[in-house]
Specification:
This protein is α+β, with helices and mostly antiparallel strands. The chain is 45% helix and 14% strand. Belongs to the NDK family.
Length: 231
């Protein structure tokens, strides 16, 4: 039997692709409508964070624009009010989100892509088209950096398909959960949920290592670009 293209690594990666989307300050009040639009177009929202960037953080986020004429305006705009950072997932997510946003220039979006989000929520001012409402990563490496800028602890991996979810349950959950449920049926404790939770904690085959106390990591959960691994 030949292997169909739907099972290829390339197509699976495009199916599970992630990108970062930002609802900028000028569109912050329209967050709910924009999120509904995103969901209605087949995206999954995997993470959401509301934050107000400092000028230094905005400059770091848009460091690829450093030296260009619009860079100061961009930094000032992105630090002028609250923003919403979203991690989106969909097939061919990066390009699909860029298509949904529309052109970067609001005038162009309104003229040629009137149904795009930037045409609907962007603002044209005498200072130019800097208030285009939304941001999206340009390519995979940038998406990875920008996701970790806002969500430093997020693991960016492929989404599981239905058949893979079943395989995962059988391989990783059933060997521990099955005996736990059988023991629960035998013991019939007064508080079954608490009993099962304690059983699973004692018999966890993948016991995680304890991290540092919360006060030690509080300052680390800031918007920043992580240092690349040497390995």
């Amino acid at each position: 039997m030949s292997v169909g293209s739907s099972d290829s690594d390339e197509e699976f990666q495009s199916y599970s692709e992630r990108t970062l989307a930002i609802i900028k300050p000028e569109a912050y009040e329209d967050t709910e409508a924009i999120e509904n639009h995103i969901k209605n177009h087949g995206f999954s929202i995997l993470a959401k964070r509301e934050v107000r960037l400092t000028p230094e953080q905005a400059a770091e986020l848009y460091r690829g624009h450093y030296g260009r004429q619009h860079f100061p305006h961009l930094v000032a705009q992105m630090s002028s009010g609250p923003i919403v950072a979203l991690v989106l997932a969909a097939r061919n997510c990066i390009q699909k989100w860029r298509n949904l946003m529309g052109p970067a220039r609001v005038a162009e979006a309104q003229a040629y892509w009137p149904d795009s989000l930037r045409a609907c929520y962007g603002r044209r001012t005498k200072y130019g088209d800097y208030f285009n409402a939304l941001h999206g990563s340009k390519e995979h490496a940038e998406a990875l950096r920008e996701i970790h800028f806002f969500f430093p602890n997020m693991i960016v991996g492929p989404l599981l398909r239905h058949m893979q979810i079943n395989d995962y349950i059988q391989k990783h959950l059933t060997p521990t959960l099955g005996p736990g449920l059988a023991a629960l049926a035998r013991e019939r404790p007064a508080e079954p949920i608490l009993w099962l939770a304690q059983y699973l904690h004692r018999n966890n085959p993948n016991e995680p290592e304890m991290g540092p106390p919360s006060h030690e990591i509080r300052d680390d959960y800031r918007c920043h670009t992580p240092v690349p691994s040497e390995i």
